[in-house]
Every structure is written in structure tokens, then in C-alpha cells.
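Input record, target 12 of the design panel.
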């Protein structure tokens, strides 16, 4: 078994892990990264549909959905969105903004990943790829036994930063293995569940609506109480609902389903039009266009597949003329379009989730340092912690802010001799 010695070892080579390693090394710590996949930063490559929306100019507590938002903002304010943009500018990544969303000017996630990798190389940070942790324990320092296809290693380090990600998107290497390490180190882990994920419904008309993308407002109700809402382009699928607005509210629906509560999604399919505005036209239009079918009558308002689902929900035939259907039936259809109910019965799994909710409990972490309150020299960063933000660069901002703080404070440990 070959032995190695470092000041700081980062477990996990994703966004938070790379930022933590760079920050520790920039502040004088001899640093290494242990990553169990073939490359660093795999998950970064899939963010923002490959364009890497890496932060957002709107950065406040409402952008995060976990319970302790004060903890999150305390960490983010120590290395905020402007500082993240400045950090990447120093690495040659110019940024561009679209509605507050910040992307690399190249609009390619690979440029962000490559910039971090090149900085890691410049700083002389050692990288162990396809390397798995067998055990980790602490005496005076931490001892990590790990292995790859070529050799077994024993790594001695004064500090450890656990940045091993979550269960979300396991194809990127984020397979939840970090939770076991955390548990072995005596940490409490809140049950990880998918977040920013598609929702399943038993609505019998889902297949009729499948394939439609339409602007609307989705509201999530748990046991009859509205918990969250969002507006944007909703995607209707054969299994339920998707799209960014659904992702934004999904963590509440997922938790509700997991806890076996009654979860419903109410969608206003025409949220930019008031009910009264349509209702006031109906009687006049029926008199003027009595020959039109229900489908034709509503075709200028919303996609005909949504009209069909709304009509079938009140037992109306879309091929019936509006004069035959009558104004009351037309009113009922409008009400359906304004408040269409999906009973939420499940959700897509970790393989489809962009991030997780749950993870290492914040009550065990010092928000000023990201250090464990139970184990001196053990720090945490990124998605392995119980923090989840909305779509829009918030989860990457958390990764960079928490990674930066953990890297900075681990390099300032009294046990590390300055080089």
C-alpha cells in the first residue's frame, strides 16, 4: 500500500469539490482530489442544457427551498454571485446575462469545467481518478484508505472536504456514495429525495395532452393547502407534468408524496387571461358562431389538446356545436382551463432529478466555516448538504460558495503548516 500526505483532501471532483480544492491550494494548502469517476466536473457539463447557467443576478433566500435559508445566505454572502463571476473572469470565462441568468459567454458548459481543470493543474493539485474510498477515520489526522485499478493507497491529511454530491443524475457519477462516508463519520443525513424533477399523475387524460408545451401557472397543494406556485412553460406528458415551473415546485410535491399526503397540482392553462374576460365573450360568440364545435370555439385561446382534456373532464364532446352545448357547458370548460387538477401520485427518480433535497443536516455544520460541529477538520460543500435551490444557477452558486468557504477555512486550520 502506497502512502500519501496532504494538508487538505477533497472527496468529490464536481463543481463544489473543484472550487474547494482550488481555494485551498490558492491559500497555501497542499491539496488533492479523490474522484471515483473517469473525469472531473461531469455534472457541470449537463447544467443549463449544456450552456452552464452558473449563477443568477437575483440571489436571495426565496431562491432556495430547504428549511434553513438563513444558513444558505450566510454562506453565499461570503462568496456571492458577483465574486463568482469575478473568479471565473480571472480564469478567462467572460459572462453574459439573460433575464438575470448568468452563462459563460461561450454558452458552453465545457468552458467552465475546463477552466477549473486548468486552474487545478496550474496549482499542482494532485488528482486521483476512478478512485474509491474504502474507509476514512480520524486519529490525530485523517487516514483515508482508497483504491483504483492499479493500487491501494493510504492518504494522510490534516483536513477533509466532503463534496461527493448527491443521488441526483447518477450517470454523472453522483450516485450517493458520499452519504455512506458521511454516516461512517458520524453525521446525520436527512433522507435524500429528488428535487427539480418531473411529476407523475393518474389523470386519465394525460395521454391526450402529451407533447403540449404551453405557458401556465402550476400550484401545489398538500392536504388541501397551497404550498408553492410558479409560472412558465409547462410540459404535458403521458405520465404527468414537466417543465421548469413544475421543477420549481416539485420538491414540495415529492416530499408530500413520500410522506403519503394528498398532493394535487392545479394548473391555470391560460394564466395570462382572466376568467371574466373570456366569460363575458362566451354568450356573444355563441350567438355569432353557433355552428362552431367546442374545439373550434376555444382554438384561438389554447392548444386543442388541452381543450379536449378540459372538455372531457366535464363530459363534453369537443365535436359538439357550441349552440348545442350551451353557454353553461362552455363556462365549465373555461373553469377547467383555469383550474385543471392533476392528482400527483409519484415522481421521476434520481436519474431524472437535477438535484436532491435532503442530505447532511445543517444543524451539524458551522455556517461560518462549513466545518463539522462534531469532527474537527471535516468540512462539507455542495449538494451533499441539505440545500436545494430553484432552477436558474442557484445550485451551482451554492456549490461554488460552499466550496470556496470550505476550501478557505480548511486551509486556515491551525493544524496546517503554511508553505
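The sequence produced for target 12 reads:
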Amino acid at each position: 500500500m502506497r502512502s500519501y500526505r496532504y494538508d487538505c483532501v477533497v472527496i468529490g471532483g464536481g463543481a463544489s469539490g473543484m472550487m474547494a480544492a482550488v481555494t485551498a491550494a490558492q491559500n497555501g494548502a497542499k491539496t488533492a482530489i479523490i474522484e471515483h469517476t473517469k473525469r472531473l466536473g461531469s455534472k457541470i457539463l449537463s447544467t443549463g442544457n449544456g450552456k452552464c447557467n452558473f449563477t443568477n443576478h437575483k440571489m436571495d433566500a426565496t431562491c432556495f427551498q430547504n428549511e434553513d435559508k438563513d444558513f444558505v445566505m450566510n454562506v453565499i454572502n461570503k462568496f456571492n454571485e458577483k465574486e463568482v463571476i469575478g473568479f471565473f473572469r480571472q480564469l478567462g470565462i467572460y459572462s453574459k446575462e439573460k433575464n438575470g441568468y448568468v452563462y459563460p459567454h461561450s454558452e458552453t458548459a465545457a468552458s467552465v469545467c475546463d477552466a477549473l481543470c486548468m486552474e487545478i493543474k496550474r496549482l499542482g493539485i494532485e488528482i486521483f481518478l476512478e478512485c474509491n474510498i474504502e474507509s476514512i477515520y480520524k486519529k490525530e489526522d485523517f487516514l483515508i484508505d482508497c483504491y483504483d485499478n492499479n493500487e491501494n493507497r493510504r492518504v494522510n491529511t490534516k483536513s477533509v472536504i466532503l463534496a461527493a454530491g448527491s443521488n441526483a443524475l447518477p450517470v454523472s457519477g453522483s450516485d450517493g456514495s458520499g452519504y455512506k462516508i458521511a454516516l461512517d463519520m458520524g453525521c446525520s443525513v436527512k433522507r435524500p429525495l429528488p428535487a427539480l424533477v418531473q411529476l407523475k399523475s393518474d389523470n386519465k387524460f394525460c395521454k391526450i395532452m402529451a407533447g403540449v408545451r404551453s405557458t401556465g401557472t402550476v400550484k401545489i397543494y398538500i392536504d388541501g393547502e397551497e404550498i408553492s406556485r410558479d409560472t412558465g412553460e409547462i410540459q404535458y406528458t403521458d405520465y404527468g407534468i414537466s417543465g421548469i415551473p413544475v421543477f420549481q415546485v416539485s420538491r414540495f410535491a415529492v416530499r408530500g408524496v413520500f410522506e403519503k399526503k394528498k398532493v394535487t397540482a392545479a394548473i391555470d392553462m391560460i394564466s395570462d387571461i382572466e376568467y371574466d374576460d373570456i366569460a363575458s365573450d362566451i354568450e356573444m360568440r355563441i350567438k355569432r358562431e353557433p355552428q362552431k364545435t367546442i374545439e373550434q370555439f376555444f382554438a384561438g385561446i389554447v392548444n386543442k389538446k388541452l381543450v379536449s382534456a378540459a372538455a372531457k373532464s366535464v363530459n363534453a364532446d369537443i365535436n359538439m356545436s357550441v349552440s348545442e352545448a350551451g353557454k353553461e357547458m362552455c363556462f365549465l370548460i373555461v373553469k377547467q382551463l383555469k383550474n385543471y387538477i392533476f392528482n400527483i401520485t409519484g415522481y421521476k427518480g434520481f436519474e431524472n432529478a437535477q438535484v436532491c433535497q435532503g442530505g447532511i443536516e445543517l444543524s451539524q455544520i458551522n455556517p461560518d466555516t462549513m466545518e463539522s460541529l462534531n469532527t474537527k477538520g471535516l468540512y462539507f460543500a455542495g449538494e451533499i448538504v441539505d440545500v436545494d435551490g430553484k432552477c436558474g444557477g442557484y445550485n451551482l452558486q451554492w456549490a461554488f460558495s460552499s466550496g470556496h468557504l470550505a476550501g478557505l477555512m480548511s486551509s486556515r486550520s491551525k493544524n496546517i503548516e503554511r508553505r
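The first helix runs from residue 15 to 26.
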